[in-house]
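Dear support,

Our group has been running a series of protein-ligand predictions, and this particular one with adenosine-5'-diphosphate is the one our PI (initials K.S.) wants archived with full inputs and outputs. We had some confusion internally about which version of the output was final, so please treat the block below as the authoritative record. The input we submitted was:
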Amino acid sequence: MVNLNIAIERKSYASNMPDVLGQLGFNVAQGEFVSLVGPSGTGKSTLLNMIAGLESIEAGSIRFNDQLLKGPPPCKLSYIFQQPRLMPWLTVFENLRLVMPDSAPFEIEKMLDKVGLKGKSDCYPKQLSGGMQRRVSIARAFLTRPDLLLLDEPFVSLDAPNAQRLRSILLELWLEHKTTVVFVTHDLNEAIQLSDRVLFLSSSPGTVLLDKDIDLPRPRIDDVHFQNWKKHLLSQNPGLLEGQVSDVASESFSRGFI
Ligand code: ADP
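Confirmed final output from the archive:
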């Protein structure tokens, strides 16, 4: 299990380009589900890629259980992207076995069962719907029993019932595995439904505008109570979803900042 500490000073892609990320810092506790919410271009994917070791950290640090990130992440990490990124020439079963070559066939079948793909192990990705392919990518991510799971808008462009079913599957697996999760989305409803905490990012350069605990009981359904909670949050923080600074101070902006 992993505890993440993020303390970024700034990030840019080139010296002649504006900073994508400004100063931002936060902790993600072991087993916590944290969402990053903000408009397009606020550096959410950049930050996720930095945590995954795919993008350089020029100024600042990222720590995994106090261990400084310098190259490959020092823990078992799974990353679910917008696209399921399955190998088209491999069956569903083979796509899963690729990440865990030593896993017993029954373990793979059990994981497929959990994501609602019982009986689909011999199918090729092109024989599956978009939603089913994403189920495979969720199964693949959890099969390795990751300490840290990163997700970048994994349910975007799915129809509402499919996205809802996948969110439920994700939550069930997260509760079972107690994985630490960082989830990127621009959909506030999705973030409220899933997360323990939501971090709202400002537009360029990206910084944390608000670090908000979601204290609604689970399971969370989009009912009146849910909508009132959201309305209250937005009325207290106008401009939040546009990535603009409001007068309301962040509840715990500097939480974990070194
Ligand atoms: P978000 O995930 O919030 O939409 P991104 O992290 O994808 O934001 O992008 C933030 C900014 O960084 C955007 O202006 C984007 O064009 C730029 N950017 C992202 N990746 C690269 C890259 N590899 N090279 C140069 N600019 C990039």
